[in-house]
């Protein structure tokens, strides 16, 4: 079973017929009948075995070819560097044979690990974090096995290449997946394919909610093409949120077949029983169509959900968010180590920006702002000064021009900002001194936006959950829209991060932050 996060709901996807490929969403499924029952109805129908077609097959093939090329290039680079460092590594033809065999074995193990870790499962295409996680897990497993084999066989020449191939391969494979994901998202934005076609099942309000969540986002994977309601009374030409109502529960198989649906999504409804869902699964099995059940778990990340079997049902166990313990100790170590390295790397930039600020406007180089940190503790946050002296006293006079929602003050053309300050803000260079806050333990590299005391005073209860973790230099709010986000959406993203943090999520946000900062998107 695979769990997919969609807006405020978690569709739980069950493969109705394992091992059978889904046809392109633009074509209909074909089935062959084995034998009729006593009433002349098909006793059972099996999807015609056929190769996976459409965008999914092409995307899968490109991923496989890319991975083969990346693995080959990575291993060639690793062993090539070994020859440069140790020119006498290949002393005899036998050495060449051993090296070639070792390289081929590592490549085979690596590619097999990717396949067995579901790195080519169509259900994860374009998913970002879950897709990258499978690549990283597969790489870790492959190299763990190879290291064990090298130790058992006493093959010492593998150590050097492995030290190079392991990190290089992880970066290259994830980078390739990222590039293909961007290509897929561009296709979806253009309306040029890459979508999973759904038939929604549920009462009209629930189906309408599912449609509004899925059909309103250009980059969303899913699109609802039709609706079936639990009971009869379907009016000719009836639509729910712009999507046609095509029948009731008795019509699901026929309608899914006619639409060429990839999956059927069943919304929660008191009119749909467990027996109805079971029969739907049997019906969809005939066409090789997947069955998905939606569970209204708003902003709960998939890793926090565990399915537990119980008599006659399945229970969804949602892990309680934890804001301390070993996991957050790992985060603190990561923060300090990465901040120290980044500070050294950007020290010339820090010096250049400091000189530019001092030379172009009167006042100190740094601006100290008291912010609210974890558990409501105040701390002095350091930034490069981007405004003229006395700017804080002008906030009330500019209140009418405030473009920020909630207690947040924002202006696209703030007259208090200096000319150098506009450049610094566009590329977030004014925030680089916050690295010192990270090193001091006040902040994290990734976390909720650090709020001002008067903003916290206006917080509602759910907003205060942002204060359960350290504020960050960047966060989901930064990579999602930066200053373009509404106040409500920024709060939702911060709370989601606080409750669903993982080390991998931090690394992904840091990588996406670099891209957002370079582009200057959404900053002012």
From TrEMBL:
Q: Where in the cell is it found?
A: Membrane
Keyword Transferase listed = yes
Just give the chief location class: membrane
One molecular function GO term is: phosphotransferase activity, for other substituted phosphate groups
- Please list the residue ranges annotated as the Bacterial sugar transferase domain: 331-518
Bilayer topology term: Multi-pass membrane protein
Membrane spanning residue stretches: 65-84, 96-117, 138-156, 162-180, 336-359
Similarity comment: Belongs to the bacterial sugar transferase family.
Task: Please report the name of this protein according to its UniProt entry.
Answer: Polyprenyl glycosylphosphotransferase
Which species does this protein come from?
Promicromonospora citrea
